[in-house]
Amino acid sequence: MVLKNQVEWALHCCSILAGLPEGKYLATKFLAEFHGLPKEYLSKALQGLSQAGLVESTLGPSGGYRLAISPREISFLDIVEAVDGSRNTFACTDIRNNIPCRPARMKQSKICAVAQVMYDADEAWRSHLRNVRLSDLLDTLEVELPKDFAKACETWILNRI
Amino acid sequence: MVLKNQVEWALHCCSILAGLPEGKYLATKFLAEFHGLPKEYLSKALQGLSQAGLVESTLGPSGGYRLAISPREISFLDIVEAVDGSRNTFACTDIRNNIPCRPARMKQSKICAVAQVMYDADEAWRSHLRNVRLSDLLDTLEVELPKDFAKACETWILNRI
DNA sequence: GAGAGACTACTCGGATACAGTCTGTCCGAGTAAATCCGG
DNA sequence: CCGGATTTACTCGGACAGACTGTATCCGAGTAGTCTCTC
Q: Are A117 and B137 in contact (CB under 8 A)?
């Protein structure tokens, strides 16, 4: 049970898009070049973000992606689910229904006890991701990133808009 | 990112093995028949439990599996990791190292901020699973399961030992 | 009746196969800005 | 110099392919208990 690479890519790309000047778009080509990723495949991840409404795109020259909403309104969970889907990490197939000695017409109102525990764990994971916003990541990077490196990245990107 | 079916199977099988009379083994064949699962494939999950030391097996007639340790000492996480592996749900490939404008010989002591958030979420998930023990599941089933059903299951199993 | 050998029922592990997902590439359709060209 | 047509640069979406994983199935090797056979 491992998340796909695109999740990592999407998270990093969002942090870049969040730093864009007001109203500007950044092309997939440059996002891919910046992170050393295959452009065409990265584009799939960005399409996922776009369909989820986290990001918006425009066509033509000087087209590309930008955030559709404020970084304060985007959680890690939003990005993860946009790219990786929102299926529960545990898929209960209700194998208790196969038990041969079960009385006919037995009422099975409650959810399977095993599944309940797994669902709770899933919710703990999601809850943690829901409570971290993209803006929190930006704050952390602001502190952790060396100033000269941050500046170099900024000019690199501004040169491509 | 979905856990494999074998995890569900292993959890249910463990709850059955926990109810076995002292010192008795239950064959894979019956565990599979009881849950309506493919015997050969279920055996892979049980092998995983065996390698993790949660379960022990014996060969020959009246052979099979039984718990190797008390249900109080077995957590859900133990079972999940025995079957599904213990790799982190997020695989950081450190794409920040690919950034073209990074200064040469830049010290990158700290862990990637994106990865840190994902690792914390992973730990929240694992922590929840670690805090639920197999004995807790048995307690829940004791309360939730209709008495006649539980009895029917018990006799079904005792008849096969 | 006792002991040795054959038999049986099971686990374990490897080999194999198939399907689905992940990763990645390629290309055509559609679109918006920039450019060109005719009046 | 102005407005329409063309070109360009991009996104979007589908098609496709290879690698890997998940889901099985099958079978042979090894083992522990049981049965049988011989003395």
A: yes
